[in-house]
């Protein structure tokens, strides 16, 4: 299989999706990358994501396409800056390089299990303990000075553009008309001012956190995937936390925000979720459920 041709065909997100949907091509790319990096262990392939990733027992190698170089640069900067800076471990950069225009990062593999696999079996006290740990870590991240190369979001310009495209974008993503009706006025009426700005991960979710069981109980043992990180309103962070960590569990979200020193209304967090770079109201509704009334839905997800 001509790996050079495979990699050069990927010039946009559609090309990347086509590659990621072809396991044989992904396998060939990782085998070639392993030889390029000098790994002797055959890499396993995790579930499909937005980058080509290979895993050994000790190393994670992540490749990002040339059109995503800005994301790759951001991740590299974040990992180098945040090493040992947070209460939750982050990967250590071991080596980085280029293969046919694709930037790759070899990083340490963190210990632990994906929180998404453990979460369904945890009791209420265990979930709240992890919520406290996560909130404390986010407070540290949001208080750090981001490196100059991490993007500072022009929030007012971003908000105006996202609002103008909101209904058309969500309709294109299959959002039910019952939710689209009144969506723009609801988000416009909510408080979406910048407020306090901070260095954000932007995609805090169960799938991006690792846990280990210790004598003191479950503890967070890893946080990864920093490529979409930027400086933006702190409450923007908690829209993804509410959707992908607490998922409607009000006590969990309340504890994460308390430990982070943050307070925001359900309407503000819902509006931030709709202004998020990856906002997909139809998918959120399928994933978490809830009423078709926007006010009630905001309270269901972020109350």
Which key features would you list for this structure?
303 residues, four-stranded antiparallel β-sheet, Aminoglycoside 3'-phosphotransferase, Chain: A, domain 2, three-stranded antiparallel β-sheet, Phosphorylase Kinase, domain 1, alpha+beta, globular, 2 domains, 9 strands
Backbone shape: globular
The CATH class of the largest domain turns out to be Alpha Beta
Number of H- or I-type helical stretches? 14
Structural class: alpha+beta
Using only C-alpha atoms, the radius of gyration works out to: 20 Å
Biggest sheet character: 4 strands, antiparallel
Sketch the topology as an H/E string, one letter per element.
Answer: HHHEEHEEEHHHHHEEEEHHHHH
CA(first)-CA(last) distance: 52 Å
The overall average pLDDT, rounded, is 95
Q: How helix-rich are the residues, as a percent range?
A: 40-55%
Beta-strand level of the residues, as a percent range? Answer: 15-25%
